[in-house]
Amino acid sequence: MSSTASPSPSSATTAPAAAPPAAGTRGPGGPLLILAAATLWGTTGTVASFAPAGASPLAIGAGTMGIGGLLTLALAGRSALAVLRSGRRALGWALLGALGIVIYPLAFYTSMAWAGVAVGTVVSLGCAPVFAALLERILDGTRLTRRWAAAAGAAGGGCALLVAAGGAGGGDTARISAGVALGLLAGAAYAGYTYYAGCLIRRGHSSRAVMGALFGLGTLVLVPLFALTSGPLLVTGRGLLVVGYLALVPMCLAYLLFGAGLVRVRASAATVLTLFEPVVAAVLGVAVVGERLGVRGWSGVALVVAGLLVLTVRRR
To answer: pTM for this structure?
Structure first.
């Protein structure tokens, strides 16, 4: 998943796998690498739907980010400890960022389980940039623009349509509404941990060190939670395949692809390219999982994506 991003409100769909390139940095293949990463992130919900019966979405989320977090910490090595030792303020930011890392997968995977792969993914990703801008307004005093208001309105309207589409399709409206609410929580947690990661990166730490520190702290909660809730995931081959894929492919390989692509294209262009993720998730949810959105549902998806475009596409 685009599970991580640079700290600006317009880039809450961009993963902090690498530092933003210098202005004007370009190179061949960059857009294709980022699209490949976004495609892999978009498969998370569909793959999670193949978990064994009785597997908890909490276990899937904790296993994905917990195991992936251990790998991220291993790649960072001692540089992650340097982040935590760089002062009380940095430690506070790291703890707040780690809190977001703990909340995000638990809310995200439960949202998809309750509201559907397409709805849960689109809501979580679509509201994240809105929450990022709101967070910067509250903590940094950044002015909210008309574009932000338009994006927030579009995302809110899209979420309402997605809930209405689920109820009209014979689904449990209360469960779908709760799933959408958890998607909003996931988006807020996502925006939160990317914000605090950005604070640490601006202090001079590398993105690898910062993410190693935040994910390392997050694993202190996620790994024990996974051990307590894993159940069918660890006793069946299919469960092991699901967790292994989610931890290794969307969590590690996709971030490596994204980092390589980010060196070759502008960060603003990369942000727009990652919008491919919710599109992939929605299409796979319908084509593979067998979900039905209908006209209202697809209109809701279109509104959320339109809000993302309004917020991320910069005027020349």
So the answer is: 0.79
Q: Kindly list the distances between the CA atom of residue 247 and the CA atoms of 58, 71, 83, 276, in Å, as whole numbers in the listed order.
A: 14, 9, 24, 20
Tens of pLDDT, residue by residue over 41-64, are 889 888 988 988 888 899 999 998
| Cα radius of gyration (the chain) | 18
Distances (CA, A) of 123 to 17, 154, 163, 189, 307: 23, 11, 10, 13, 11
CA 174 to CA 291: how far, in whole Å? Answer: 18
Contact criterion met (CB below 8 Å) for 68 and 247: yes
CB atoms within 10 A of CB 24: 6
Query: What is residue 204's three-state secondary structure?
Result: coil
Residues in the chain: 316
Say if residues 36 and 249 touch (Cβ distance below 8 Å).
no
Contact 223, 64 (CB under 8 A): no
Could you read off the pLDDT of 63-110 as tens digits, one per residue? Answer: 988 998 898 899 888 899 999 998 899 999 999 999 999 999 999 999
One-letter-per-residue 3-state SS of 199-233: HHHHCCCCHHHHHHHHHHHHHHHHHHHHHHHCCHH
Handedness of CA 147, 149, 154, 156 (dihedral sign): positive
Contacts of 65 (CB under 8 A, 6+ apart): 3, 101, 102, 104, 105, 215, 218, 222, 251
- Compute the distance between CA of residue 198 and CA of residue 218 in angstroms, rounded to an integer: 17
